[in-house]
C-alpha cells in the first residue's frame, strides 16, 4: 500500500498518514476490521465516487473530491452498513469520525496529496 500526506493548499498538513490503496485487495479491504482510526490518519480511494460501510466497526467521516481534489461533498459520521455516493466526485477520502470538524474541512476547499514515505 502506498502512503502519503494530505494537505490543504500546498503547505498545511491535515493528515500525517494517508493510506493510498493500490491493488484490488487493498481497495477491497480498505479499513474493514479497524477498531479505531487515529485523527491524523485516513484512506484515499482514487477513481471512486461511492463507498459502503458494510462490515465496518466504526463510523467514518467521508469527503468526496473532484478530479482536482476539490471538496464537493461532506458526510459526517457515516454509520456501519450505510452507503454513500456523489456523482460529482472522482475520489473518496475516509477519515476518522469527527475529522471534518476537527480540521475544518469545508465545501470548495482545495486539498492536495503528497505521495511518498510518511
Automatic annotation (TrEMBL):
<protein>
    <submittedName>
        <fullName>DUF192 domain-containing protein</fullName>
    </submittedName>
</protein>
<dbReference type="InterPro" id="IPR038695">
    <property type="entry name" value="Saro_0823-like_sf"/>
</dbReference>
<dbReference type="Pfam" id="PF02643">
    <property type="entry name" value="DUF192"/>
</dbReference>
<dbReference type="InterPro" id="IPR003795">
    <property type="entry name" value="DUF192"/>
</dbReference>
